[in-house]
Fold these 3 entries.
Entry 1:
Amino acid sequence: MRSGFVALAGRPNAGKSTLINALVNEKIAIVSPKPQTTRSEIRGIVNTEDAQIVFTDTPGIHKARHRLETRMNKEAASVIQGVDVIYLVTDGTKPYGSGDEYVLTIVKNAGLPVFLIFNKIDCLSKEEVLRNLESWQSRFSFQEFFPVSALKQKNFDDLLNTTISYLPEGEAMYPRTVINDSPENFRIAEIIREKILYCTEEEVPHASAVIIENKEFTKDGCDIHAMILVEKPGQKAIVIGRQGMMLKKIGIAARKEIEAFLDCHVRLHLFVRVEKDWRDIDSRITQYGYGHIDE
């Protein structure tokens, strides 16, 4: 059989997390319209009769303004170096820019087979797809290219079969029943953070983090105590909302998805704490599980 690693690389909001969820056919990575949703490497495993593909969703590569973002970029670049194939996922609705040039340079330097995954074709005409694809293909000799809609496409057989042909021969690296290797508490914290991203605006989404302080299973469900971290008192006020309504809204949305994930009744208790400038403090970034690559 064949087995190997495939990294999904690209700019923020290119659709990498939506694509890995579609490939695995289960939501393993949170998604939102806001950039920098993905902060850490997330693996999704796809098994076929004669192959195992380990997909790795990486943080979007972008110009860093905080230490957290610097470490996210470094993590993405490190992951790209340790795989067999790279998917360069691009947002087909946006023109080629300096950010694309930066990502393409990193991908080129890896010296690995690169597939151009031209995403969001459901938002484009056929003429626009062809024109934008030609623009990308003129900049680099991609081994393969696939126009896709990560959001709406159901069948990825051609992409998977072509990818398998590039993988080395080897044994499966995960049991065939495993589709994701993220710790349970990380998955729960990410679900809560996703709801914060959807429910809040202004500077709150990027300044927030979530840690699970306690999780206890009982005969009638699961009690979870989670701490939402923000950087400023004003952000805390926004997350809590008037008479606690925003925190309640976040909790209701998160609890519903966590119950589906754990397959049991969940009692979710959310708290909010200010951690000033945590995105620029290495020890805090590590503690909260982000930016795994450090200097």
Entry 2:
Amino acid sequence: MPQNKPTLQFWLLLSFLAFIWGGAFFLAKLSVSEVPPILLVFFRVSIAGVCLWMIVALRGSALGLTLAILPNFLVLGMLNNVIPFGLLFWGQQSIGAGLASVLNAFTPVFTMVLAQLFTSNEKLTPLKLGAAFLGVLGVAVMTGVDAFTGSSDTVLPQLACLGAALSYATAFIFIRRMANVPPLTLAIGQLTSSTLILLPIVLLGGDIAVATNISWEIWGAIAALAVISTALAYLIFFRLISMGGSTNTSLVTFLVPVSAILLGTAFLDERLALNQWTGIALIMLALLLIDGRIVDFLRTRVLRQS
């Protein structure tokens, strides 16, 4: 069956998700100054998982978790948490949060290519392809040329962030086989699986000893990263996929750099430059093109006049 047409509620939720995920890049950049990447991933998924389990306990609702779908959750946890979080946190030890969010904006391009190869109802169209690259151009213009300059020791961290984008895109496609699983069950299943995957790695690697030396400020950043940018975010994320499809939901990565700049303006007294306003405009145009309603409206007007 064809993917759902995005609604106004979809775009509002997508914008809110972009806002809290934009903040996640800053929280992660702050946290990796004291916490090793793998340990930070473990804290993020385990704390978020506990929060969601508490919600289930308070609501007294049944999750419908079965052993039959456990392998799917393990794969989803790897693709949507362990691999991308680890690569992004490792990369952000060497590159800035802004550049990491720009590289993460390639997720929709990877998603569209994978959807073309492995799905039958989210096929790539020239309009979507053009809009996707317009969005990537927007985030590149917005951060400016300086974001991409640097010494050769930043090449691998940048590639790691692109690898995270590819992992996210693969997760978007994989989630399709779990379309009938409720959003809360999906979120809890993947976060719990990710925690179980990382627990022996953290214990055997010895990174857990670092926890005694983490400052209270960094613990606050970790808590916000886990509770807001993960637990709450994934509830919204899986809801969006059910509302508008995986390709449309992947567009959130176009908006994340926008929210990062707006957060900097609001809380760090930063000011938007001309290139940043231009980039935001390009991103908005890309989203409008992919949404399709303006294109349909213009096409109808032209047909009526002809």
Entry 3:
Amino acid sequence: MLKGKTILLGVTGSIAAYKAADLASRLVKQHAEVHVIMTENATQFIAPITFETLTSRKCITDTFDRNHPMEVEHISLAKKADLAIIAPATANIIAKMACGIADDMLSTTLLACTCPVLVSPAMNTRMYEHPATQANLALLKERGVKIIEPSSGHLACGDEGRGKLPEPAFLVDCILAQIACEKDLAGRKVLVTAGPTQEAIDPVRFITNHSSGKMGYAIARAAALRGADVTLVSGPVSLTPPPGVKLVPIKSARDLFDAVTAVSDQQDIIIKAAAVADYRPACVSDEKIKKSDDDLSISLERTEDTLKYLGDHKRKGQILCGFAMETSDMENRARGKLMKKNLDMIVGNNVKVAGAGFGTDTNVVTLITADKTQQLEIMSKESVAMKLLDRLAQML
């Protein structure tokens, strides 16, 4: 997703500098051109050759190094960068940036940058919370620098608290959010539902399905990358919410219905990718629960049809998309749901097709509207999400 993009990675003197190697590697795998500038203190924690091996480019550590093409290096790097990220960012480099100090290669280059700049602080909790550091961060925010909040936990110094550098995968997501996609959904509100629901039988057991939530989370992430204001209503899954997305956790189909209908009027696009447990125990009495260890013949009733409700109450200009997972006659059944539930598009997939279904990292889907059917080849769920949003954006 970063093909053709140039990333300037600044690494400063923190024990977390070792994570920057993983970050550089992940950026290269995203096909970015990565240039690393290290402070002198950073070289005490990790060797420049590590970054040179990972990026296939010289790691810059000295403003006056003559072993590079005859150009003003800090200016040329600043001009070509599509984004600069300082990870880890010490209190020292944060203070330099706030005061406009340029006394080494990294601070000098940053002063010449006009591209988006991300700063990911990593330091002792007391240093991070010191009024001077907080004032410097606030000043950088006012100037348009994006601050990535540090994680909390056990620090290298033995303290507990805020100050940990977030995991490299999260930092990559922050970078992608800035420059990976055209912001064609900026100003739009998108609601995505994802994952399974659980219908309790008794205090121990419940009815559910095999949904992993991967497709819904991929859609939410893609919408956020394209600039949308995203709300993700998610059943119980073992996935990390994408950065910049508002997460609303739910369990039951009723929870899903309540969470979605509470905000549906405000949404420009609603994509229901959650796999609902279609049935729930009907009026299970306390006496029935006591006997359920020996008697599981509990009557069932259908859960709320959230998608049908949304279709019946769809406001003018709102786009509504659903999913139809079928095992046979997929297109006809999906098209029937499209019409019955007043949808603008439905995404059909046959769970028996190799590469589709629950828990996989790929999907094979058909995008169905009232006047068009588009069969997509097998691709990653992230790619499916982008194709889906391409179609929905055209309908706005």
